[in-house]
């Protein structure tokens, strides 16, 4: 389809979704008083549509400023929305007939009695709950590409987004806050009127290490539990430059929403008195109830088996965090089970995983540090070209995707690749790489270890996690290969705003994970 035709067709799809949504909303208004047993479900449906309407209407206003590839992506997502909305209207009409007619349920009671009524209401509630689930799933699917709009630098889009927010569209707020954080990062530290750095009298008490991670917990002055992420300043590093980077990182992370990004909001930063390190303080929102925080590594090394649902939830949440980081122009560089914190519920269920460990991060616009290390347990999560004391490649989003793939592989297998024995870290029996670690040619060994990981995925994941999960893990592990179906066109990395890379990742990794049903 020609670009002009595509843009017209997609805009028509936006209008069609808005039209269907308004019909759904009018049905909800008409039916919400019909039966109190299903009234709450109808109110939920109304609420979802009002949020979606704001987002889709905004999308229509900025459509012609979007890259063609993003238009194609949004058109696909909108087609799904249209189908859900039409199905929802059909569901409501089947339950209640037309809004101005006698209640279907009243006729049912008159003819067949109260027992039939109760069965009908129960069936109706289940039908409406399916509609709520579908709308919620679509909203989660749309959110990643929505947050990517914060990366688009075109003035026309900035103007339209500003107008929408001024008119009261709350869904614009996360995009606006990320944009503001990006703008603050361009301001020299001494020119900034606000500071993310906490007062020197701000004291964290009861600090306790979280096992098998560098993060800790502690009590803030207000008595709330916080997560502490320590950032040690490397030898010969320029303190002022590092401080500005930490300021910019903390400012962006202060806008994080755990429900979407699997990142905790940053409360502030404490500078060590000897200027040897920073402590990034993350607050835990009150709605997140939890027992004792633990690392993903500590869960993987235990013999306890966690459900497929829980492992999928952790993997999908981790994949979503990479989208937020990319939208925020951040390359994490250290994604591994040691840097993923889990907040188990009091009942023992595994809740949303949270990414920490920003010690080696950088922003996309900055030149990457080409220094490395020879720690095998860290190299395992790095692409072969980023291993060793002198890595070959500059870090970009694909390297974080590779690291995510290794974590997804471990989650799928349900066991740790790294075993802790006293002060030593040794490969698990599941990971036959001892000879490769002892080899003199480290570069060749790194490539061989990558092949071992891919073979593990091909051999064991299909029966444990299914074909979709397996293909997604392999796509992550091969994302830097010349033959990779994920990023085969190098021109995508010439996109100044990084939109194309983000869209491809959302479609080929995140959407595939979210497609899996247990």
Automatic annotation (TrEMBL):
| Superkingdom, natural source | Eukaryota
Query: InterPro entries under this entry?
Result: Kinase-like_dom_sf, Prot_kinase_dom
A Gene Ontology molecular function term for this protein is: ATP binding
Annotated coiled-coil positions are none
Q: Where is the Protein kinase domain?
A: 182-518
**Do you know which PROSITE patterns this protein is assigned to?**
PROTEIN_KINASE_DOM
Name this polypeptide is given: Protein kinase domain-containing protein
Question: Which organism does this record belong to?
Answer: Penicillium hordei
